[in-house]
Amino acid sequence: MAALAQASAYALRPFADALTFLTTTHVHPTLFPYPWASTLHATRVSMVYQNNMRKSGNNLSWGTYIAGYLIMCWGGMVISHTLLSLPPPILFSINPYINYIVPHLVVTLLFAIFPDILTSPNLDLVLFPLDALLRANAVTSTLTMISSNPAIDSKLTSSALFHVIIGAVASCGGGVSAATLKTWTSEWSFGTPVFLRSGVGIWGSLDVWAGSLVAIVYSTMTIHPAFDEIVPFEVRPAFALSSLGAKAVGCYIYTILFGLRVWKAKLTSAAVAKKGKGKTKTQ
Fold first, then answer.
1. Is position 280 within any domain?
2. Which residue ranges run through the membrane (predicted)?
3. What is d(CA 253, CA 135) in angstroms, rounded to the nearest whole number?
């Protein structure tokens, strides 16, 4: 058992160290005193938002461009805080605006100068491990609030179902909100949420159910009372972990799932390209 625990700790350490760095280290102590985690999240969302905007073929006003991007960044946070009956930080602090708008403007300038980077077919292949870290951090940090904030109703904190719901919201709330409202277009409109559309499938809805899966794993491994009736008491010590260790497990789960999604997308793209070449030869 000791050997297994040591092996687990060794396997989890890279993700645990990465999470610690991202959440505790500032980009610059004076010029930009914001954590790498939120700054990189802002950067990645900006990249996805700009890519969607280009695909839509719309020219946006600066107001639409900034507001639509912020909805994509903060949708999950606002919804989860609302469910928790907590005020979201964007209502009482200017820091989130600086932390997110500045990277968005920098990335906008970068891709205006080097537009081909944004459309690189290998971008997701290179960045999916970072996406996994950031997504796991978002989900598990929200779950940590459930355990640590006494202002949250005990009916919610003691509900395993609520953990599952919060995991999904924290994982995909921003992306789903932006897609539902079509915030990367010049004319916003309310549509069907992405994960409810026909033909989405398991990979198209991954952002939703992966968040719930990580929530279950995290809350179970941190021995949250909400899961007392689900996990037998005798079994708990076998996989009990610290909060950081459980977060690292969440990173592993997201890395595997995101990696599989990228791999599947690559195979699909290659198959389509091969089929297209075959048609060209027969014509």
1. no
2. 62-85, 97-118, 160-182, 194-218, 238-260
3. 11
Q: Are 137 and 22 in contact (CB under 8 A)?
A: yes
32 bridge partner residues: 28
**Token duo for residue 152:** 């949250």
Both tokens of 199, joined, read: 């033909």
Query: Is 225 domain-assigned?
Result: yes
SS (H, E, C) the chain: CHHHHHHHHHHHHHHHHHHHHHHHCEEECCCEEEEHHHHHHHHHHHHHHHHHHHHHCCCCCHHHHHHHHHHHHHHHHHHHHHHCCCCCHHHCCCHHHHHHHHHHHHHHHHHHHCHHHHCCCCHHHHHHHHHHHHHHHHHHHHHHHHHHCCCCCHHHHCCHHHHHHHHHHHHHHHHHHHHHHCCCCCCCCCCCCHHHCCCCHHHHCHHHHHHHHHHHHHHHHCCCHHHCCCCCCCCHHHCCCCHHHHHHHHHHHHHHHHHHHHHHHHHHHHHHHHHHHHHHHHC
pLDDT in tens, 133-189: 999 999 999 999 988 888 999 999 999 999 999 999 999 999 999 999 999 999 999
Enclosing domain of residue 51: 8-269
Confidence band for 111, pLDDT divided at 50, 70 and 90: very high
Res. 7: pLDDT tops 60: yes
State the chain's mean pLDDT as an integer: 91
Say how many domains are in the chain: 1
Is 18 within the bounds of a domain? yes
Per-residue pLDDT tens digits for 207-245 = 999 999 999 999 999 989 898 877 765 555 566 889 999
| Separation of alpha carbons 31 and 63, rounded Å | 26
